[in-house]
Amino acid sequence: MSFTSRTVWRLASTVAAGAALVTTSIYVSRTTWRIAAGSKLGITDENTALLSFIDSPTISNHVNPQRKESRAVDTHTVTLHVPLNKGISDETILAQATKNFFNGWVFYLEAKALNLIKLQDGKYSSMFFPNTPKRDLGSSLTRLFVQLELASTTVPAHIWNAAKLSETSLPELHTVLFGVFRLADVHLADDDATGDSSSTTTTQSHADFLFGSDLTQFAGCHRLSVQRQEVDAVGGTQKVQVQLQCYACNPQSDAPANGILLGFHRLYASALFRETAGQMYRWLHPDNTAHDMMKRRIKVHEP
């Protein structure tokens, strides 16, 4: 290699390394800023989940049909103040939560990895054998038959870019995001309402996203949920509780979950939800967000 070639190569390597460092710094700073912004909203993290989720048809039918004891659960909760004059429905809130969850900086690296490896859609025994005894689903013949049946099952859409998700409506049922997350169940409390917009309800709206497979040693579900609470008539807002509930298990074993992996999952889920909550606050209160940012800038420049 000539002197000139070596010089060009070293220069190119230096530029590439510098670009990688700058890109990494931008990613870390933006991710950290969004997590920190969400953390100011009074988010709670608990290593529990509601029985209505644990015993739901989504878990019983698709995730852990054999009711193995290896499960691990966690819940992340925030209360937001939703303006009443905007007519925001539960589905719109869930759609915003879904888009911000899968289209944020925290999920960015996972999204890139999933786009690269292009996993096949997860296989769930109960979708094809709803009346088959669960103990029979362990045979190799049944597993093979399930895989063959899945090949003919139509998924309405595959979404590989979360920026394309709607901000006002959820994807069609059984849509698969990033080849992994299947929208398996949706319930909207708006559909149960009597039409009195001034009334409050304890009914929860939710969207369940499956991942993994009950035919393997890893399966789970993310439930994004919305529950409306009291109305502030003076302030013109309503308190709305938004939650992320997570359930993961080895559907083939009763052995406890790996402590290190479980700890990482809970930290990751907490970061995902904090960014999601922060972005939803910015969406609900753009004027307040701009005002808060201006105050921070003024404070930074004060002598």
Write the layout of secondary structure elements.
Layout: H1 3-39, E1 44-46, H2 51-54, H3 57-63, E2 72-83, H4 90-102, H5 108-117, H6 140-150, E3 158-159, E4 176-177, E5 181-187, E6 204-213, E7 218-232, E8 237-249, H7 259-284, H8 286-301
Parallel strand pairs: 3-4
Antiparallel strand pairs: 1-2, 2-8, 4-5, 5-6, 6-7, 7-8
Helix pairs in contact: 1-7, 4-7, 7-8
Can you put this structure into words, describing what you see?
The chain has an 8-stranded mixed beta sheet with strand order 1-2-8-7-6-5-4-3, sandwiched between helices. The chain has one domain. The termini are far apart. The model is unreliable at about 130-150, about 195-200 and about 295-303 (pLDDT under 50). It has 8 helices and 8 strands. It is globular. It has about 300 residues and is an alpha+beta fold.
Radius of gyration: 23 Å
* Count of the separate structural domains: 1
Number of beta-strand segments: 8
Mean pLDDT: 81
Envelope shape = globular
**Biggest sheet record:** 8 strands, mixed
- In helices, the fraction of residues equals 40-55%
The structure class reads: alpha+beta
Q: For the terminal residues, how far apart are their CA atoms?
A: 56 Å
